């Protein structure tokens, strides 16, 4: 049974032509050119407005190549080619997307526009540059260095092997929520460590500011019997050289204090 093309927005004309080609190549009678079979059978693969378009053409198609070209110009215009070229150039691996899923999506996108006119070297480069860091590192390790140092054919073969392995073992990158949670936990831990250090520093500064200054007080002894101890000129000179206030410790004032006579001073 022939595949049908209706010309709807979601239909792929290139896919229709490929399916039509496979069917015609298998049903071709011996001795009849394949292009002749395609020209006669192609109108029956169209339906609705697409069949009307074909029958309303002002000129007849002499070759299968002309019919195919006019079909693509109508249902795959240049504007659509430009859009798909931009999508190919900006291809990017989605968060949580496996290497196999990304590679398959990339190949399907390229297949929707076979005449994108992008070289194989650039195709591999676009695919490789937008890989996740984990998958890019795995491919570089498998290639023995950098993938882009390989030829396009070798690079494509290596990527195909890697994607088959990821499909078999189900290797999938971390999800966006997991990455956000891990980054948030690490940031919170760093913040807690900084707050702990800052609190300790403030406590040390507070203790240092409230620490009373310990100033040594100098006491003199008079050995003369010619005058009272509090009238000793030598001790008076020593006391005059000390500060008036040297601080308080335990509520007891140090410094100049009135002399109190002790019983043994006049002995």
TrEMBL record:
Q: Which InterPro entries match?
A: Retrotrans_gag_dom
- Indicate the segments annotated as coiled coil, or none if absent: none
Return the protein name. Answer: Retrotransposon gag domain-containing protein
Indicate the segments forming the Retrotransposon gag domain, all copies: 41-129
Enumerate the Pfam families for this protein: Retrotrans_gag (PF03732)
- Per the UniProt record, the source organism is Mucuna pruriens
